[in-house]
Amino acid sequence: MDTREKRPLDELEKGFLPHESWEVLEWGECGKLGGRSRAGCEGSTYKIMFAITLLVLCWHYGFVVARPSEIARRVDGVPNYVIDYAPIVYLDTAEAYFPSDIGAQLANTQPEINFSVIPNAPNPLTVNNVDSLNGFGSGGSDVYLTTTIDITKSPAPKWLEGVVPDSSGKTGSAVSSAIIVNDHGSGAIDAFYMYFYAYNQGNTVLGQELGDHIGDWEHNMIRFKDGVPQHVWYSQHSGGQAFTYRATEKVGKRPVSYSAKGSHANYAIGGKHDHTIPGLNLPDGLIVDHTSKGVSWDPTLSSYYYNFKPSDGSFEGINNSPVAPMNFKGKWGDAQYKDDDKRQKEFFGFKKFVGGPTGPGDKQLNRTKVCPESDVPCVLRDKLVP
After folding, report:
1. How far apart (Å, rounded) are the C-alpha atoms in residues 254 and 249?
2. pLDDT of residue 350
3. What CA–CA distances, in Å, run from 69 to 84, 207, 227?
4. How many CB atoms lie within 10 A of CB 54?
5. Using alpha carbons only, how large is the chain's radius of gyration in Å?
6. Which InterPro entries does this one have (predicted)?
7. 288-291: strand order across its sheet
8. What's the per-residue H, E or C state across the chain?
């Protein structure tokens, strides 16, 4: 059998039909010169019509695998618009560290203070008991979730690489995000979309990779008024950017967030983003993040959901989402390695390995402005910039 007869359907599963796989028919050729019979010609025509029909159906019903979903699923207890307008995240084409399972991170770490394992701590750590570590080390703030093996040895553990989202944008069975709703009243709601990665690969500066750390929490925040999105916040390292919802790139009505290679900082557009000077993003410079439209990730498909109560800073799990990861006050990674640690390197005062980050509860969930409070002015941009 001619392999070209199967190729259109194979390619259809990928979301396209290359032109060279089509049978070329010209009027008046059936049954002539080439020895092609009328039945053979009609058979090829039917195959073409069948392939076209399938392609149209796939487009109509949204089954083309390369197309991210414009409509998110419904979640009981969460306002529909919080899901309907949830960001679609594009990971960089060269990304090596993908969204990660929160529970897997805990299973591969042990709690330490000052590089010493905490005695009598829960073992194993899970999403149901990690907040018990708040009973140690200054209310938990001195606790580091430290990897149980040396991650610099080859091969690196697979759990550090995270999970590549599938064709639907889901990270399989890995729960890799947390969506948190803060209802301010009078129709004002902030929805935080928290993204978890097992590893942060720092930027390369003059040939030196700097700022690596275990664990990485990044986020977008959308401010709603009466169910209508007003502004979108994009977290970037110690700062970020805010844009009007109208200005953002969208998939349907869902704003797009570009996750930078390795660092996972969130940007509103693809390309280069220099962040050498905090609060000043330029298209190029010394310390540059790279973003592009690689694999698409839909965090709503693999998420825990919470209500945040600003009166006491507590969390309410929605649909039995565990509250312990939100309540944990410590760091989601190793402490910064000491200068005499063979894994550590220094370059003009910057370290190759820095300490792990705090969790979602430390991201100013009850902020007044769209931007978290900082020394950098909060600019609400109405035009996309790097």
Report:
1. 8
2. 93
3. 10, 39, 20
4. 16
5. 25
6. Vps62
7. 280-282, 271-277, 288-291
8. CCHHHCHHHHHHCCCCCCHHHCCCCCCCCCCCCCCCCHHHHHHHHHHHHHHHHHHHHHHHHCCCCCCCCCCCCCCCCCCHHHHHCCCEEEECCCCCCCECCHHHHHHCEEEEECCEECCCCCCCCCCCCHHHHHHCCCCCCCCEEEECCCCCCCCCCHHHHCCCCCCCCCCCCCCCEEEEEEEEECCEEEEEEEEEEEEECCEEECCEEECEEEEEEEEEEEEEECCEEEEEEEEECCEEEEEEHHHCCEECCEEEEEECCCCCCEECCCEEEEEEECCEEECCCCCEEEECCCCEECHHHHEEEEEEECCCCEEEEECCCCCHHHHCCCECCCCCCCCCCCCCCEECCEECECCCCECHHHCCCCCCCCCCCCCCCCCEECCCCC
pTM: 0.82
Residue-wise pLDDT for 342-373, tens only, equals 999 999 999 999 999 999 999 999 999 999 99
- Token pair of 386 as six digits: 């790097």
At 34, list the tokens.
Answer: 């080439």
Question: What backbone torsions phi and psi does residue 20 show, to the nearest 5 degrees?
Answer: -75, -10
pLDDT in tens, 285-328: 888 999 999 999 999 999 999 999 999 999 999 999 999 999 99
Take residue 14 and report the two structure tokens written for it. Answer: 């990928």
Write out pLDDT tens, residues 203-214: 999 999 999 999
| Alpha carbons 192 and 181: distance in angstroms, whole number | 6
Domain residue extents for the chain = 3-61, 80-381
Which position has the token pair 């939100």? 326
